[in-house]
Design a protein that fits this description.
Layout lengths: L3 H12 L19 H7 L4 H5 L16 E5 L5 H10 L4 E6 L2 H9 L1 H7 L7 E5 L15 E7 L8 H11 E14 L5 H4 L2 H5 L6 E2 H11 L5 E7 L5 H7 L10 H11 L3 E9 L12 E5 L9 E3 L5 E3 L3 E4 L1 H8 L7 E5 L10 E3 L8 H26 L1
Helix pairs in contact: 7-10
EC number: 2.1.1.137
GO molecular function: arsenite methyltransferase activity
InterPro entries: Arsenite_MeTrfase-like, Methyltranfer_dom, SAM-dependent_MTases_sf
Length: 387
């Protein structure tokens, strides 16, 4: 592919006219949508919604009065939802390099300002590439939250994007984003396929690369929030990436093992990363955290990631990395913190949580689910073969 950027611009301005033109579920949001988001979606202009190509929900809690940046905002659907969530005192900036998408977003600024009963708009759209945010006039250490919805896979320089996000986030800020990940490195031939790249598949990165780029930039280790397997419905694309195949009664052993040795598995996943202030990065003692004051929509329990849920009033023992992330974030006021004192006796049961391992939970889950599915099919085929 001679130019990734121009091919993406062509694909999203000429090839795709609406969400229904997509050939995979990579750029489609699955799962349940919170009631608070559903109510806002009713107020989003139909033309904006028609050109939505995200793969997740990038609306972390407690956004009121926050300054938020949306990378690859497209026609602005998420920006306008965020506009409502941050309120009239907050501010949202959307960046996208595709002029046709930005034009749609800008055309509906007044519409949403009036729909939300704001005296003035609290959104701004910038046309440009997300690999160099500061060159677009975006200030460093400015945003409370940065979000992105199935966009980083479309850029050829993912490391540069993550470095730029770190620059523009305030200390203690959160990077909350959904994207597509693969269980292996994508070949150059597939990377050069315009449709596979535009459908958010051949630009997918490995989990290990995300961890490397994030930690090198200065972020905490990425924490997985949600994940789901991607379905490829287009037959031509299936042949290229090698989607699961059904068993033959005679050759099922060969097919079973060849699938797991070569074919690519894709997952869309939502992660959260935190920019910890440099003077706080050396916290090296465990803490007791108690979720005391409920966050709107999470009054009784706060889903922090796919393994950790803070229940209100529950004592939670956690390591220094997690403690530092929460302690320096906008969630701080909803928790009480106490360094663990081994000489002190605490009242009530203490829940102990572990740091996420280097191996991604979502890939373990996806692999496990696939293996279970294959095992069931294998057992069924064996029984049919024997009869």
């Amino acid at each position: 592919m001679a130019n990734y950027h121009s091919n993406v611009q062509d694909y999203y301005s000429k090839e795709l006219k609406s969400t229904y033109d997509l050939k995979t579920s990579a750029c489609c949001t699955k799962g349940s949508t919170p009631h608070s988001i559903k109510s806002i979606l009713k107020d989003i202009h139909p033309d904006v919604q028609a050109k939505y190509y995200g793969c997740g929900l990038v609306f972390p809690p407690k956004l009121e009065n926050c300054k938020v940046l949306d990378l690859g905002c497209g026609s602005g659907r998420d920006v306008y939802i965020l506009s409502r969530l941050v309120g009239p005192q907050g501010f949202v900036v959307g960046v996208d390099m595709t002029k046709e998408q930005i034009d749609v977003a800008r055309q509906h600024i007044d519409y949403h300002m009036k729909k939300f009963n704001y005296k003035e708009s609290n959104v701004k759209f910038i046309e440009g590439k997300i690999e160099n945010l500061t060159a677009l006039g975006i200030n460093e250490n400015f945003f409370d939250v940065v979000v992105s919805n199935c966009v980083i896979n479309l850029t050829p320089d993912k490391k540069a994007v993550i470095n730029e996000v770190w620059k523009v986030l305030k200390p203690g800020g959160e990077f909350y984003f959904s994207d597509v990940y693969a269980d292996q490195t994508i070949s150059e031939d597939l990377r050069n396929n315009k449709i596979l790249w535009g459908e958010c598949l051949s630009g997918a990165i490995k989990w290990e690369d995300l961890v490397l780029y994030a930690t090198e930039a200065g972020f905490t280790t990425p924490r997985l929030v949600t994940a789901q397997q991607i379905d490829i419905t287009n037959d031509d694309l299936k042949k290229l990436v090698g989607t699961p195949v059904y068993f033959s009664k005679i050759l099922f052993f060969t097919i079973f093992f060849s699938h797991f040795s070569g074919n690519i598995r894709f997952v869309s996943a939502t992660f959260r990363l935190f920019k910890i202030p440099l003077n706080e990065a050396e916290i090296n003692i465990p803490y007791l955290l108690t979720y005391e004051s409920g966050i709107p929509d999470f009054e009784d329990a706060f889903l922090f990631d796919n393994t950790i849920t803070f229940k209100r009033g529950e004592l939670v023992s956690c390591g220094p990395t997690l403690a530092s992330a929460v302690l320096n974030s906008r969630y701080r006021d909803n928790f009480t913190f106490e360094p663990i004192d081994n000489t002190k006796q605490y009242d009530g049961q203490i829940v102990i949580v572990e740091e996420q391992k280097e191996r991604p939970v979502f890939l373990k889950y996806a692999t496990c689910q696939m293996l279970m599915f294959k095992a069931r099919r294998l057992a069924s085929s064996l029984m049919e073969y024997r009869t």
